[in-house]
Amino acid sequence: MEHDGQLQLYAAVASRLKEAHTRVRALQVPEGVRMALTRKLLVITAAAKHDPAGAARRLERFTEDLDEGRFSDGQR
User: Fold this and answer.
1) Which residue did the predictor score with more confidence, 73 or 29?
2) What is the pLDDT averaged over residues 58-63?
3) Which ranges constitute the DSSP H helices of 1-76?
4) Which residues fall within 8 angstroms of residue 40, CB to CB, at 6 or more apart?
5) How does DSSP classify residue 49?
6) Rg (Cα) of the chain, in Å, rounded?
């Protein structure tokens, strides 16, 4: 049963990551901002391979930030 739950979590995270990538691509923001957001999503994607629950939490925070328009300007 645990294996099924893990597969469902992977599928849910994968679906939400795909949606987040689509949203980032559609944003009307400077390229530096888009690149920074894409890098964050790639980090979350990598984390999902080892810790899907943690990645789901990080993705939730990322999505909330997108919803609220809170993202960095891509400059360091």
Assistant:
1) 29
2) 97
3) 2-26, 31-48, 52-68
4) 62
5) T
6) 13
Residue 69 in contact with residue 27, Cβ under 8 Å?
Answer: no
Task: Report the C-alpha gap between 38 and 44 in whole angstroms.
Answer: 10
Q: In angstroms, how far apart are the furthest CA atoms of the chain? A: 45
Tokens found for residue 72: 């960095």
Interacting residues of 9 by C-beta distance below 8 A, sequence separation 6+: 52, 53, 56
CA angle 48–49–51, rounded 5-degree value: 55
Phi-psi region of 69 (alpha: psi -120 to 50; beta: other; left: phi over 0): left
User: pLDDT tens, 33-52?
Assistant: 999 999 999 999 999 999 99
Global pTM? 0.84
Distance CA 10, CA 14 (A): 6
